[in-house]
Amino acid sequence: MKDLLAVEHLSRDEIERILDRAESFAEVGRRDIKKVPTLRGRTILNLFYEASTRTLSSFEIAAKRLSADVHSIKAAGSAVDKGESLKDTVATLSAYDPAAIVIRSPHAGAAEMVSRWTEASVINAGDGKHEHPSQALLDLYTLRAGVGSLEGKRIWIVGDVLHSRVARSCLLAFNAMGAEVTLAGPPTLIPRGIEALGVDVAYDLDRLGEADVVYTLRMQMERMSESYVPSLREYAMRYQIDSRRLGPRQLLMHPGPVNRGVELAPEVIDSAQSLITTQVESGLVVRMAILYEVLAGQDRPSVRAAAEPVTDPPTIGQPA
Amino acid sequence: MSFLVSRAGPSADLVLKGARVFDPRTGIDEVRDVVVREGKIAELAEAGSAPEIEGAEVVDAAGLLALPAFVDPHVHFRVPGQEHKEDLETGSRAAAAGGYCAVIAMANTDPVVDSAAMLGSVRDRAEREASVPTGFVATVTKGMRGGELTEMAELRDAGAIGFSDDGLPLASARVLDRALQYQRLAGGVIALHEEDPDLSGNGVMHEGEVSAALGLAGIPAVSESTMIARDCSLAAYESARIHVQHLSARSSVEEMARAKAAGVQVSCEVTPHHLTLTDEAIREGLDSRFKMNPPLRTEDDRQALIEGLRDGTIDCVATDHAPHAPEEKEVPFEQAAMGVTGLEKAFAVLHTELVLPGILELGLVVERMTCGGEPFGIAAPRIEPDAVANIALIDPELEWVVGEEGYESRSDNTAFADRPLTGRVMMTVADGRVAYRQRSLMMEVAG
After folding, report:
1. What is the dihedral of CA B297, B299, B300, B304, to 10 degrees?
2. Nearest CA to CA, how far is B329 from chain A (Å)?
3. Where is B185: in which H helix or E strand?
4. H helix intervals, B239-393
5. Has B320 been annotated as catalytic?
6. B135/A232: higher pLDDT
7. Region A158-170: what's the mean pLDDT?
8. Given B87, B315, B320, B395, the catalytic residue
9. Which pairing describes strands B100-105 and B134-138: parallel, antiparallel, or unpaired?
10. Where are the domains of chain B?
11. ipTM of this predicted structure
């Protein structure tokens, strides 16, 4: 795999390969010296056009644990601020011959465009409201440890699906692994036509009890001013997951950062059923596995092949 | 006052030998020698019987179609202010290469065409640069701000072929109502870009399954159809004439059918891209070449547009030729400018995608591509003796790939790039002058 652009393009085999690899990296994290030489001498650039704490830091730490040289560029204070186009920025960064570019952009399709403009492997760390594949993979990894196979499991994704790239990547990933996905939220925040992706839609939580896993999404404060919901209070009354709604055998997930008291009641965040902290831990090993997959995994030209001497091009006039 | 202007040039003396002359309006469909003298169709002679005319250009047109040339009621030539995208010379050259003998340029330029002085200056430039007769609309509102009306009566006297704030809807019903009342004084049809800006919001593509999968903000079909319903009601109320631009949705076709059945004086247009593409084109790759407003919609919408064109609910084909510079398109989909070029391959696209598979008759496509001037008072061209020569000479079997030889337009933002098409314009005669010759056309000069 050269790039990781979207869950949509991943086969179940590829997903499992990455999760297996992540498991092997988990062992590295338990060592005193948490570093392996796998990507020594490779340069990884994190190009972040949006604020990010956990995604950026976990990609940085993942790269360092694999001994890569990593450099992070944030939109604020960079040439982007001076009006440079994405294409020109990518051309500039490509001149450093990076092995991989990890990009987060507020615009859908940005990672895919970048992959057309550079030789480097491109990893999508979130493109607009489109996809966030590394988040979905770390959620799968978390669930694999928590519930084992997802075959036939019921997963409810609750909240603002319309504005969530996590929801899109997760539903595709959960589907790919055989789970049955239901999207629940106010009708204004469930995109028209989303059923075509093979999911059920619910506008209330009456059937939430059937879920094996409840995956909640962040509810952004500014949604009221756009008339998506009348008030956070009404939203919380209808959709907040609290100890009353969450059954004892159900697992709880959230991609973070959590709005305490909005989509989640404080008592469930810190409950034994909550996998939220595990998700963050998984982020590191899964992102190590993703970097490994695109830079050292199968179907990648080996470093040695690239280092072979180049034969002289034929001179003009000489029969080739 | 002529509402169409173009640069002067020699009148054509021309013989198209053995062309299949096909004009659905006159009913002719026969192999003839088309004789053009001093820019007029002198005769449609029996094949092989055309007289030798000294100095005339003789074209071996065996196997070629001689059609009435096309009229496009909706192009963006970007003059003044955005000449890096297109100008009157490159735009009219693109029109000529597409077989067009007349086009109507929109007024959403920079600055906008909202005064007699501005209109005069673009018409002057067209007199120097346009190889195809070009009409100019003026805006309905000053600065296209949707508030105050332009001096429509003076603009009409100064040559405004009609009025449109195209690019933006007239959000205020009150402003449109006033404009329709004022039409009784000023004349000139009001062409409307129908979109409810509130419903469209920050949408960038059709709202539906594909936008849901891609996480892109959607432009719902009702954003267009509700405005069509509103404006048809206003036109009926004021007994005014309106022309609805670029229909894209089934619900819009239905609104048009209702309005026409009720006797509203309304006409409408549809583009080749809405007739042949759907939002599925965006799913893989989020290619900004498929971004335009109104957006590509679903297969169901597309079928409704085809049916509407067939049964006459939709009057004509318009390209909405909208050139953009590469840097405005080589950006993520959400940031990319809206619009695609269309003039150079409109006929080839419809011929390949709708005529050859038997979905629409050639005659119907020719009728709908030639009558685009009628809402603006420009009669459709006819191929008959004594008529001014407006002829598109077409090789219906020539296969070509869009863009393989570059473009006449200054911009290359077409939704059909790299697509193999069948049928190519070989020569265009516009207003009695040869406006375009395809480079492989075989011709000689007699005498």
Report:
1. 80
2. 11
3. helix B173-186
4. 250-261, 272-276, 280-283, 299-311, 326-329, 346-350, 362-370
5. yes
6. B135
7. 96
8. B320
9. parallel
10. 4-66+386-445, 69-376
11. 0.88
